[in-house]
Design brief:
The structure is a homodimer. Chain A is mainly alpha-helical and about 500 residues long. Chain A contains 20 helices and three strands. Chain A has two domains: about 1-95; about 160-495, Orthogonal Bundle (Neurolysin, domain 3), CATH 1.10.1370. In chain A, helix 15 (about 350-365) crosses helix 17. The interface of A and B includes residues 14, 44, 223 and 225 of A.
Chain lengths: ~500, ~500
């Protein structure tokens, strides 16, 4: 068994460090690639991906992987996790033939272009046909992957191993039934605050400010970088090379800060995982949902709390001494609730309803219970029902997200799973670090990072998400912490009775 | 033959676009890699290099490459060049066994570290032993590669195909015999100018200035980038992704500008080569010497001329309106001749003597006519003889360059070959574009780029360097143009009789 383990580790190590080049190519494409370099980049990407894919399909040569799967009860926790994850990837790799992967990739490229055009022209009908083809190929994928109970389970499992429609239905229904009336209470108050910023904020100074904030949160800039991209993201290029991005507005320092803090949360998680786990493919987070719980915890639970905003305010003043807002002003600006059309611009109260709408639709698209042509109508009526808004045009409605055009179905739920986990973990952490609710010092932030390392980060992908959360918080996924957090915070902020 | 050509092209295309990832990894290492990411980067580099090396050794599978070599007289000019270059690389690849390449690589890493330490401590004796080992392994390489007449030919040929010791001896002796007395004439004048800059020059503004200058020269920023690195360089990541770097001094705008212009010359060359040539491995310049001729032409022949400095002066004023120097001041500052210890800081008159010293030493190290322990003495006496300077310590003498520590023997001559070619090509170009000597407008720069494209750039590596130069200038390498250029320019500047 030892020699099989050794061989498997060597194979995984090679895949991991070769795909590090892919990660760099991806990062560069988003951050620094010259505009004319796009087409040659696509060739290099696909060649490196092909190399990794071929190596993935060879993971079981000599049956070492299947043998290890069968013997995994005799393995250490870490080795068993490595074997489990290696087999997951290998198994998916062999189920998708080369010709299927190529068809999917060609369709994605095409559909992405059609989507861009349709969104620009605010016309869903232009996109309807190719989206139908995308859903058909997703159904093929579902059949190739296999599933129990519900076809959509095959897709969710890819992003959030172990998660199912039946679990999500319960969770999301509960969340929706709490949020819809709660948001109505807030909007009924018809509160109107001045949420505009005054002044100009030099991007050069903002960059320094954002680096300061990442630094105090515990993101290690000597094992990472902060750059600019249109859509902020975090990428793990190597075990000590985990990069984040943000984007700046010269009119508003908050805009960049909360993206940086969010990505910083991802970055701190990834930087915290032991190198030995990276080497064998269990170095990333337990699931996308757990990863999102860390970014959202830093961004929302910590980042949008009054004690943190007081600390943040001091740093803003360091670079912008003429900044006119008080911490209380900032707290209101940062936590202002407005039901709107656009998911990515929504606040932490309305956000999950945007996700639930997508979840309910995706599920039925895959099961065939909604036709593509019905999409705008279904979308708009759910937006009205859950958020009380009338969607004026498709670009602000069903066409707003890139995900479907690229074939990412089953991904959206992980955002809300992250929100739910974030509140649940934070609630447990507060018992050990109560000062998070009172006055936040640099030491408090160090304690927070150490706590998350001890309970989440250091395990990488050793545990399945649900087990990790049970170990960390003493129970399985529980939405009540998120609901209580929202209810308590926003009842006070909006003077609800 | 068609099917063999097709197969070879496909194989070359794959190698080229995979090694594009290597180029990006290299660029990133120099420009943006976080300090803790260095060790994992080394693993990825070596894995990607290994993939390319394996593919290189498979170029001849089915004997297609050797067959094509034998049939190459029936091939088009481009295909014959492709076959020639593919075979050169394949042949070298198979001559060096894996274990030899690994030994060389391990020795380079080790010797590089010893060199850094020895240079810091200014003590050649610390470095002497490992440099001896490096020379021994270079001799092994020479034997593996094979050579005619002189063992050093095997090493030169790697960088400058077709170049030999007997040709270089004639060329470099002529150059040395002109330069040594000419420099003495200059130093005998004991001219002393104020060459210090006044004021502070914001790096942000300098960046814009450098981009402007690259743009007017014809370097395409939408197919490239300008970033910062300790040692400026140019890298071809893809056919439309050719990046250059520079470095800035807040006290001196000239410092960055001439590095940018030099690298811009490399960049314009590489950007000008047709994509089809890139795809099959003949997209780079004809040789390192020819490449250097383009960068040095932009930097020196054009860049350090009075008409260009007048244009440049206007751009400096655009960003630094308080700049106090006149174009004539700048011309003197930029063309100030001072025999010094350090090659990279030397002016265009003394530069070649630094190279000739290295050439004369390398040649004898490889042939065994100089012992490593004699190096400091030989170095210092040549510096005294050619440049009239007394080297005060090894860090300013024999320890100054990184090249030997990394095993680059045979590379230095390409710098002077570049200088000689640059003057020869410029002399021919002046007949078509005489305004280069009078008043340089943006149109003049466009004409220059177009001329170089037509006579040099568009051929990529189709012609061997010497043939390319013959086609472009009507004769083989001829140092008289360089000598006349130097003599005319500096006799005037220094009022020599």
């Amino acid at each position: 068994m030892d020699s099989k383990l050794k061989t498997l580790k060597k194979r995984l190590y090679e895949i991991k460090y070769i795909s590090s080049a892919s990660s760099l190519l991806h990062w560069d494409s988003e951050v620094y690639l010259p505009q004319n370099g796009v087409s040659s980049r696509a060739i290099t990407n696909s060649l490196i991906d092909e190399i990794c894919h071929k190596k993935l399909l060879k993971l079981d040569d000599g049956n070492i992987l299947t043998d290890l799967v069968n013997e995994s009860s005799n393995l250490s926790l870490e080795d068993a996790a490595m074997v489990r994850e290696a087999f997951r990837n290998f198994d998916k790799g062999r189920k998708f033939s080369n010709s299927f992967v190529k068809r999917l990739s060609i369709l994605s490229t095409k559909s992405h272009h059609v989507w861009i055009d349709a969104r620009k022209k605010k016309d869903f009908s232009m996109y309807s046909k190719i989206l139908g083809e995308m859903i058909d190929i997703q159904k093929e994928a579902v059949d190739l992957l296999g599933y129990e109970d519900h076809p959509y389970n095959a897709l969710i499992d890819d992003y959030e191993p172990g998660m199912t429609v039946s679990k999500l239905d319960t969770i999301f229904n509960g969340l929706r039934d709490f949020l819809v009336p709660f948001i109505r209470k807030i909007t009924d108050k018809k509160v109107s605050w001045n949420i505009t910023m005054d002044g100009k904020f030099s991007v050069l100074k903002q960059k320094k400010l954002n680096r300061d904030i990442l630094d105090i949160l515990g993101y290690d800039l000597s094992s990472g970088r902060l750059d600019i991209s249109t859509h902020p993201f975090t990428v793990e290029i190597g075990p000590h090379d985990v990069r984040v991005t943000t984007r700046y507005s010269p009119n508003d320092p908050i805009y960049a800060l909360y993206s940086s803090i969010h990505e910083g949360g991802h970055g701190i998680y990834t930087q915290g995982v032991p190198v030995e786990y990276f080497d064998v493919g269990i170095g990333h987070g337990a699931s996308l949902g757990v990863h999102e719980s860390q970014s959202r915890m830093y961004e929302n639970l910590l980042g949008r709390s009054l004690p943190f905003i007081k600390l943040l305010h001091g740093y803003i003043l360091k670079y912008f001494p003429d900044f006119t807002k008080t911490p209380d002003d900032l707290y209101r600006i940062i936590n202002h609730v407005t039901p709107g059309y656009i998911r990515t611009e929504s606040d932490e109260v309305t956000y999950n309803l945007h996700i639930i709408i997508r979840y309910e639709i995706e599920k039925k698209l895959i099961s065939g219970d909604i036709k593509v042509t019905e999409l705008p109508e279904v979308w708009n009526s759910k937006m009205k029902e859950y958020l009380g808004v009338d969607v004026p045009s498709d670009d602000l409605g069903v066409l707003q997200d890139v995900h479907w055009s690229l074939g990412s179905f089953g991904y959206f739920p992980t955002y809300s799973i992250g929100n739910i986990y974030s509140a649940q973990i934070y609630n447990t952490m507060l018992k050990d670090i109560p000062e998070l609710k009172e006055v936040i010092s640099l030491d408090t932030l160090k304690s927070m990072k150490a706590w998350l390392y001890e309970h989440i980060h250091k395990y990488g992908r050793v545990y399945m998400a649900e087990d990790l959360i049970k170990n960390a918080t003493g129970e399985g996924m529980n939405t009540s912490y998120f609901n209580s957090y929202i209810e308590e915070k926003y009842s006070k902020l909006y003077n609800l009775v």
